[in-house]
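Q: How would the structure tokens look for this protein?
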Amino acid sequence: MENSLRILERHEDSLATRHVLVVGADDSAFQSLPCASLCVHSDDGSLFPSSASVTSSMLPHVPAQTDLIIVVLPKSRPQFAFWLSSVCGQITRPTEVWLVGAASGGIRGGVTTLKEFSASATQFDSARHCKLFAGELQAAPFELEKFETRWRHAELEMVSYPGVFSHGRLDAGTLLMLELLAGHSPHFGSALDIGCGAGVISAVLAKRGTKVTSIDVSATAVAATQRTFAENNLAGNCLQSDVFSNVSDRFDAIVTNPPFHDGTRRTTEVTQRLIREAPQYLNKGGALWLVANQGLPYADALHAAFKHVEVVGENRHFKVWKAQ
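A: Here is the predicted structure in token form.
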């Protein structure tokens, strides 16, 4: 259980009579908060796979009876402002807001952002290395377009939203992957882009005629990829999935620039799982193309899962693997 949840539970007497919306939940246990009514929003589709009281979406929905909004501080301050602006666009009266987050996780910066939407932000609890602040949100217009960031690559226009990996720019690892894909000229009939982000790899492949399925555990990333496809008049199947959890088809290729952080914690668990399970989702002769930071320990897993493994290109920072 997250410490941010434990500090909230210290206020269960106050919460018991409140109609609460939790925004940005990062632990499935948030759905057990003791409230008169509770709605939970999360960007992470892996946390609440089957809960009717939880929505995993880019932006929270504010039920009419809500009288307290609790925001779990995200890693991205722009995403925090994105959420707050969306909430302010839905409320019709001043509404109390609590901000909870780790003392070492940027909470002070979060308070600065909160003060852009609330006249004050007062700390009223501190425990388990977390802090809890309170303020009051006012109704204000929300315009989604103001939070879009756009850039171009290969005659395509990419669209991103706050919280998406490499928001607003093409990261160097993805660029290396795209250069090598073009240089090897693979002709994929179908491809699965895992961790699609803003849809850069997906859009490039779709433009070449590949039938693309784009997945990401983040609802915001899926929305960004959908927007990128629409902006470029491309067809593609975009869905939220925790690695292969919502995937049933097989593909000629799996392409991925996988994450190696879970929040602020460095981890390779997701990519290790991806490598192990990838052969089940490839057609005969299909290949996994994976770009990763130099030094990440994927060689053994790749050789254990695939018959043919090669490094098709690398630079000082990244390495691109092809496993077939």
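The chain has two domains: 3-144, 148-323.

DSSP finds nine helices and 18 strands in the chain.

Upvote if useful.
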